């Protein structure tokens, strides 16, 4: 309650600069993984319920954290009640000073009561803020995790609808605003409670003149209703404009080399500035309504006091010291909730828009891929397709791949050949579950490692890209470097495998990036390796070395599907798949495949 658990850390920080190891570990309930699992478990349970075919994400979050919401709500209510005792105690103090006390030591009792009330007010307010901020961080963390997880399972149509820039906005903007909402959630009802208590105290102080205060407050709230609708509309338009601008900026930065090469900087600058103008238009409209809203509510306390005193004058209501001071003190109770109403309305509108956007994203269609099964020693065919057809389109008139029959034994090496654009990469994507299956059955058993045609490199060191979050095994690591012909390349780098390779591996050549990608896949020790023409980015000598050391030696006991255009490698493969456009794949012998190539 008093945050004494922070004292040891504060003392340590006073004695020496704090380091990462000095920070206490995050509690199990606060970790993003546990929060995400709890959220998904609750969401799936409600989806399976007949009465909740389309469950509300908001109420799912509330059900996950109802205890924390109730505790923080109790602290908020306690804070409002203890705060409201101020004017009542002030009036009692004034009566005691005027000789109207009820008993001898009433002044001392009032002083003790005021101390206890202010102590409870401070304690409850800090607990309210702390618990809601903590809850907001938990909600933000599992929403971010849910968005990242959903991104990996989006269907192709959903990927076209939700760009990477929009998804980044969901995490950085929408999830953040929802994370801020728990702090303001209790303000939505404590404001009304505090206003009702303040009006009751005003009625006790000035009688019927309180009605004029109530009328001014009602008029202020009614004038704000159309503004709130406009704010919601402009906030939605603003978020859409931000998504479009961020998408254009992301694409420009990613392809900056192309822009520089073709001297397109001025054109793209003009396009981005135009998108910024559209965003600025909606931002201006939103902020102008918000400013008018704030002016309306900030001026309302003055109008309330003026209307009340004018009514007292007209109704001949006597004003003595106790009434006036009680009214002034109560007016402060009225000012705070009234001035917070614009902020509360703004936060609620932003959170509603954010909830709508994230809900639509999390409800987006997913890939209908077959669940991958665990690999067990002794499985004869870790990869099998029976009369399978695949299509990138949702309702295909003609499937991309049709009538695929494939059975790959454990440890078998399969080459995939065919003309450009015939669907070789699509077949690998189908094995990964990235292409929707329209017909047939597919079974994939085991852990898959995929090497794409264009190397994917993350910002960091060479070692970070190879380990990719796995623990370091020195022997396996050095063996991986040797198999991928990276030893000499690392010797030329200034800091070896600890060299920073820049954004998307900008400091590496195409062949080096491809070999780093091959090393990453090899280090993960998968069961099935899907290689999409990885040797096209290296010279012939290096390609031969990689094929012998990597495919035939390091992956000798692994199941391998290799897309290649190099006929010299084909004789050593167990099977060869030759693609004929629009006729699917067939398992061929070496003589048949060479004839068709």
Question: How would you portray this structure in words?
Answer:
- There is one protein chain.
- This protein is an alpha/beta fold.
- Helices cover 62% and strands 9% of the residues.
- The chain contains 19 helices and nine strands.
- It has helices spanning 7-15, 32-48, 57-64, 66-97, 106-153, 156-161, 164-185, 187-206, 210-254, 256-261, 265-314, 321-362, 424-432, 462-467, 474-483, 487-492, 510-523, 540-554, 590-596; strands spanning 383-390, 401-408, 413-418, 437-444, 448-451, 528-532, 559-563, 575-580, 584-588.
- The strands form two sheets. The chain has a six-stranded mixed sheet, sandwiched between helices.
- A hairpin with a 3-residue loop joins strand 8 (575-580) and strand 9.
- Helix 15 crosses helix 17.
- The protein is elongated and about 110 Å long.
- The N and C termini lie far apart (76 Å).
- The relative contact order is 0.08.
- Mean pLDDT is 82; it is low at 582-593.
Summarize the helices and strands and which ones pair or pack.
Elements: H1 7-15, H2 32-48, H3 57-64, H4 66-97, H5 106-153, H6 156-161, H7 164-185, H8 187-206, H9 210-254, H10 256-261, H11 265-314, H12 321-362, E1 383-390, E2 401-408, E3 413-418, H13 424-432, E4 437-444, E5 448-451, H14 462-467, H15 474-483, H16 487-492, H17 510-523, E6 528-532, H18 540-554, E7 559-563, E8 575-580, E9 584-588, H19 590-596
Parallel strand pairs: 3-7, 3-8, 5-6, 6-7
Antiparallel strand pairs: 1-2, 1-4, 8-9
Helix pairs in contact: 2-3, 2-5, 4-5, 4-8, 4-12, 5-7, 7-9, 7-12, 8-9, 8-12, 9-11, 9-12, 11-12, 15-17
């Amino acid at each position: 309650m008093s945050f004494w658990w922070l004292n040891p850390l504060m003392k340590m920080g006073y004695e020496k600069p704090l380091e990462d190891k000095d920070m206490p570990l995050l509690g199990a309930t606060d970790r993003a993984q546990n929060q995400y699992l709890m959220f998904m478990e609750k969401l799936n349970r409600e989806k399976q319920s007949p009465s909740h075919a389309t469950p509300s994400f908001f109420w799912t979050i509330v059900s996950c954290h109802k205890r924390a919401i109730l505790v923080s709500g109790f602290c908020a209510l306690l804070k409002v009640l203890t705060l409201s005792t101020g004017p009542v105690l002030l009036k009692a103090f004034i009566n005691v000073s005027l000789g109207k006390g009820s008993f001898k030591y009433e002044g001392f009792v009032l002083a003790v009561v005021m101390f206890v009330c202010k102590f409870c007010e401070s304690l409850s307010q800090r607990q309210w803020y702390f618990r809601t901020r903590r809850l907001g961080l938990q909600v933000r963390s599992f929403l971010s995790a849910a968005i990242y997880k959903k991104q990996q399972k989006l269907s192709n149509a959903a990927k076209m609808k939700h760009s990477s820039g929009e998804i980044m906005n969901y995490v950085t903007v929408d999830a953040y605003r929802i994370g801020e909402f728990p702090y303001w959630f209790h303000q939505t009802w404590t404001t009304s409670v505090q206003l009702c208590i303040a009006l009751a105290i005003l009625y006790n102080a000035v009688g019927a003149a309180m009605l004029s205060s109530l009328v001014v407050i009602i008029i202020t709230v009614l004038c704000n209703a159309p503004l709130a609708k406009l704010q919601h509309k402009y906030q939605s338009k603003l978020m859409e404009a931000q998504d479009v601008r961020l998408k254009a900026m992301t694409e420009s930065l990613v392809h900056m080399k192309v822009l520089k090469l073709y001297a397109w900087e001025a054109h793209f600058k003009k396009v981005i500035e135009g998108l910024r103008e559209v965003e600025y238009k909606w931002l201006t409209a939103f902020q102008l309504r918000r400013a008018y809203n704030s002016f309306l509510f900030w001026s309302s306390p003055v109008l309330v006091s003026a209307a009340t005193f004018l009514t007292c004058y007209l109704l001949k209501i006597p004003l003595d010291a106790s009434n006036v001071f009680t009214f002034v003190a109560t007016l402060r109770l009225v000012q705070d909730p009234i001035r917070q109403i614009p902020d509360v309305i703004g936060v609620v509108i932003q959170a509603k828009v954010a909830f709508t956007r994230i809900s639509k994203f999390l409800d987006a269609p997913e890939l209908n891929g077959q669940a991958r099964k665990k690999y067990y020693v002794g499985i004869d065919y870790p990869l099998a397709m029976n009369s399978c057809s695949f299509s990138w389109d949702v309702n295909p008139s003609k499937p991309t791949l049709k009538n695929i029959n494939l059975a790959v034994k454990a440890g078998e090496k399969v080459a995939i050949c065919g003309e450009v654009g015939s669907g070789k990469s699509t077949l690998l994507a189908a094995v990964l579950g990235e292409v929707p299956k329209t017909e047939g059955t597919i079974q994939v058993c085991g852990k898959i490692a995929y090497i794409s045609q264009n190397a994917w490199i993350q910002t960091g060191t060479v070692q970070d890209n190879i380990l990719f979050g796995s623990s370091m095994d020195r022997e396996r690591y050095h063996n991986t470097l040797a198999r991928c012909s990276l030893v000499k390349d690392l010797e030329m780098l200034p800091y070896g495998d600890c060299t920073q390779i820049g954004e998307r591996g900008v400091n590496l050549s195409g062949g080096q990036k491809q070999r780093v990608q091959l090393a990453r896949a090899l280090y993960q020790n998968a069961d099935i390796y899907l290689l999409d023409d990885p040797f096209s980015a290296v010279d012939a000598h290096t390609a031969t070395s990689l094929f012998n050391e990597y495919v035939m030696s390091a992956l000798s006991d692994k199941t391998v599907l290799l897309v290649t255009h190099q006929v010299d490698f084909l004789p050593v493969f167990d099977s060869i798949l030759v693609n004929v456009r629009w006729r699917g794949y067939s398992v061929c012998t070496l003589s048949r495949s060479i004839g068709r190539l």
